[in-house]
Write a structure and sequence with these properties.
With about 200 residues, the chain is α+β, with helices and mostly antiparallel strands. About 60% of the residues lie in helices and about 15% in strands. It folds into 2 domains: about 5-105, Orthogonal Bundle (Peroxidase, domain 1); about 105-160, no CATH class. The chain is built from 9 helices and 4 strands. Strands 2-1-3-4 form a 4-stranded mixed β-sheet. It is elongated and about 70 Å long.
Length: about 200
């Protein structure tokens, strides 16, 4: 079984336990906090991935570090991961839990890219429009990509909805190539369109 499938199985089990005790939201928040801790500490990542360190030592360290800050359910889950030697999968398990939690709470994560930073009013309008279109609670994140030229690009999971100027120019270029006679293309070569705002 692939590591991602194993991670999803553990995340599914954790969510089920959290739902039974009405702690699914708290566990999600704690996992987000834990992810930030793991991402910011190369030493902790190396510690979790090191197969030489004994499980007893890992459990003692994790309990000392985390028990004062997270729920008993999450501590118990982390102890189980270490016992099963699956602690290296923790980042994947957190990602899988987040995906399952979003499904359970009817949320939708959307990455919104634009050529320049969007004003707060426009961000709010985009989020409202996406909520109206999908009926879900939108969890947006915003990124700036100057290569997009203009407009916005939405990414939902693996799906990209491209409404940028760069995408429109590329689509126009393909349409022109499809419509031009073969003999013209042989004489003049490919069609180049402007990649900036110059005429």
């Amino acid at each position: 079984m692939s590591p991602l499938r194993i991670a999803r199985r553990y995340a599914t089990a954790l969510l089920k336990l959290a739902q039974e005790s009405q702690e699914h939201e708290r566990i999600y928040e704690e996992l987000c906090w834990l992810r930030r801790i793991v991402q910011s500490s190369s030493e902790l990542r190396a510690f979790l991935r090191n197969p030489i360190i004994r499980s007893e030592q890992k459990r003692a360290v994790i309990r000392e570090l985390l028990a004062p800050h997270v729920s008993p359910l999450l501590v118990q889950f982390l102890m189980l991961l270490i016992e099963k030697r699956r602690e290296a999968l923790l980042p994947d398990i957190i990602a899988a839990y987040e995906e399952l939690y979003y499904q359970y709470t009817d949320r939708l994560a959307v990455l919104i890219r634009s050529a320049v930073p969007l004003e707060e009013e426009l961000q709010a309008r985009l989020v409202a429009a996406l909520h109206e279109r999908t009926g879900k609670t939108i969890v947006p994140s915003f990124a700036v990509d100057p290569t997009l030229l203009g407009g916005v690009q939405l990414q939902i999971g693996d799906t990209v909805i491209d409404g940028t100027l760069r995408h429109a120019l590329e689509r126009l270029r393909r349409e022109l190539l499809e419509r031009m006679p073969v003999h013209w293309l042989r004489t003049h070569g490919d069609v180049s369109l402007p990649t900036d705002h110059q005429p």
